[in-house]
User: Fold this.
Amino acid sequence: MTLYDKIVEMLEDKFGVSSDEVTPESTFEDLDLDSLDLVEFSMALEDELGVGISDDEAAELKTVGGVATLLKEKGASV
Amino acid sequence: MTSAAMVLAGLGAYLPERIVTNDDLSQVMDTSDEWISSRTGIRQRHWAAEGQTSLHLAVEAGRQALKATADGITDVDAVVVATMTPDRRCPATAPEVAAALGLGTVPAFDVAAICSGFVYGAATAQGLIAAGTARRVLLIGSEVMSHVLYPTDRNTAVIFGDGAGAAVLRAGDADEPGAFGRFDLGADGEDSDLIRIDGGAGKIPPSPDRETGREDYMTMEGRAVYRRSIPTMAASSTTVLDSRGWTVDDVDVVIGHQANVRILDAVCNELGVDTARNFINLDKVGNTSAASVPIAMTHAHQQGFVSTGDRVLITAFGGGLTWGSTTLTWPELPAAEST
Assistant:
């Protein structure tokens, strides 16, 4: 499983997003996730993957692929 | 000597008449009913009339609570007011509240712990009662948040409402209905900037040359507060449940600080408590800061959401940062009045 797959799986579990709808280019707006959902999602990623994501970093996240890139930079692995 | 436990003996609430809906706010700032309600759960809030202050609201709520005590006793021997919007920087609001309620020269003081103010005040009252300094305490959370909201700041102006809630707390036995358990309180001044009003005090003192500006109004870093509040309230709740020997399955009702329905639901989910046990009135009243928990307790009682014997978890989080939680078994109370 790649980081990207893990992110999609978590979006599915936590927010009921259907994995068919998601592409790396999907924006959180496309998926009907607002800024507070992103805060919660970043907290879930921290718990699950053991990396720190600051509030400012969470606010900058726009797309699902962007999350995978950020997590990779932070050395996260699944 | 065995120190006395603190028991809930009466409740009351007061909301100012004027209702401000999300649609009303969307007339004056870039927002909408959908934006506000989806992010916070708030649909409307009450705002005080011109000239109406925390003193007025506190007196109304206090009067309701004193009239509606389980034992019919209408006097107290201490008054504590939790507020971040006092009438004046000096003196505190509580002495004037006590005088207006005809309570004589009882000790009276304010507690400043922002949205956790009522829980901090209740812990203080528990101390007064345990030490024998007071046998009955009137604790009131009262806020006129509309005075400190910058009119077009949608990070704050859409969230906060005005109101007051009051509780009569008396000395009693730890095993009787209405008895509070231990309190868990915490604070983290490292994040003191997340919720703040900088102007008018020591940091930016009043000056004959300084005009009122943005710094005299409230600022809140909503996302950061959201992030801190959920795990902190959940951990604090777990501490008080453990200290009482209750599991999450024992909790019948959660009365949390009414900041945001998504925070309250997330706290329940983190604890493993069914969100159906979460009392919510923020859709009608918004976030009333220190008044939020006692207004919610009063409304939960009036609506029959909480019944005699229920095991209740109370938890709050706010500026400071501060937080606090406690437990109680719900006592038999007369039908609380509120307006």
Remarks:
- Chain B touches chain A at residues 38-39, 221, 223-224, 226-227, 230-231, 262, 266 (CB under 8 Å).
